[in-house]
Amino acid sequence: MDIGLIDADLLDNGTRHPNIALEKISAYKKACGDSVHLLLSYDGVGDCDEVYISKVFTYTTCPEGVLNKLNVHYGGTGFFFDKAPGLPFEIEHHMPDYHLYDDFISREAGRGTKRVHFRDYLDYSIGFATRGCFRKCDFCVNRKYNGVFRNAPITEFFDPARKYIYLWDDNILGYTGWRQVFSELADTGRRFQFRQGMDMRLVTDEKALVLSKSKYIGDFIFAFDSLRDYDLIERKLKIWRKHCRKTTKLYLLCAYESRYVEDIEGLFARIEVLMSYRCLPYVMRFEGWQQSEFRGMYINLARWCNQPDFFKKKGFREYCEANGEKSSTMSYLRSFERKHPEIAKRYFDLKYEQAPILF
């Protein structure tokens, strides 16, 4: 059969991550003797015996009517959010086809795109050692399972020809057999990373020690989703910093529980405590933030925090001033400061380098 695969995220928004589901489908279909190719437009859908379309993001769009074609199959969280059906067992547990995107990469390289843009496609083995999470957060796509369970041994998706490994596990620190996963990763001899924000609330001395001594690549990334967890997160940060002084980043969800002034204040409070543990914030704005009265502040805070070079050197006010007195950045700051001077006084001049160290 002639099989066409479409990475809808790639065609609509562009993405720097390969679609692992499509890579597994490709490998399985090739093993069955089928001819498989990645479609770089929707024009060829009607020429294939079967077409598989996958998307990760809900905001990705597909041409009208394409999903109704008899030869089209589609799936992924972008279509079904937390109700996305899993792949059939024999496909889920097949070694991915890490060469699915080769022609696309060659085309883009010919247009001048640098190799570094495609590192995830070329340098990493990718998979899920575990799946599931017991938290069931309303905003998260990973809530269809009741707990964390083992999905695959590392060897199932590890390609020795690739220099690194990254994992999409939903909550690795919530898995009772986490030690075995880290042991398998160590056995590969490769540096690795978890791309989802790990659950800081589950950090223990043992987990912090194992993580800090592992062959981890890039920043350690955790999540700090709610101000309600402030005290617990701070206790865990103390444990973490006892064992690890490497660059650590925490995702800060905002505009989810509220889009009013208390959300902005709570975001600043979380940023402040991260400064004192020499951690970096990464602001994640939940959909609908654009409708908030404080839309401009969400923009300012995300731009300040999500660029570490700015965040480490400039306080919030300094960052806004650097954009120019007549900039929209300063307009947003002044508007907020007029309405809420007490919050501005408390937080606008905090600086990463001057924050008291609490570890």
Note down, in words, how this protein is organized.
The chain has a domain of 122 residues. The mean pLDDT is 96. The strands form four sheets. Strands 2-1-3-4 form a four-stranded parallel beta sheet. The protein has a four-stranded parallel beta sheet with strand order 10-11-12-13. Strands 5-8-9 form a three-stranded parallel beta sheet. 36% of the residues lie in helices and 15% in strands. It is built from 15 helices and 13 strands. α8 links the parallel β10 and β11. By secondary structure, the chain is α/β, with parallel strands linked by helices.
How do the strands and helices of this protein lay out in sequence?
Blueprint: E1 2-7, H1 8-12, H2 20-31, E2 35-38, E3 50-54, E4 72-75, H3 77-80, H4 89-92, H5 102-110, H6 119-122, E5 124-127, E6 130-131, E7 149-150, E8 164-167, H7 178-188, E9 191-194, E10 198-199, H8 205-213, E11 220-223, H9 230-243, E12 248-254, H10 261-276, E13 280-285, H11 295-305, H12 308-313, H13 316-322, H14 328-339, H15 341-347
Parallel strand pairs: 1-2, 1-3, 3-4, 5-8, 8-9, 10-11, 11-12, 12-13
Antiparallel strand pairs: 6-7
How many strand segments? 13
Poorly predicted ranges:
none
Order of strands across the widest beta sheet?
A: 2-1-3-4
Our estimate of the beta-strand percent is 15-25%
Largest sheet: 4 strands, parallel
Helical content (DSSP H or I, runs of 4+) = 25-40%
**Structural class per helix/strand content?**
alpha/beta
What's the pLDDT, averaged over the residues?
Answer: 96
Count helical runs. Answer: 15
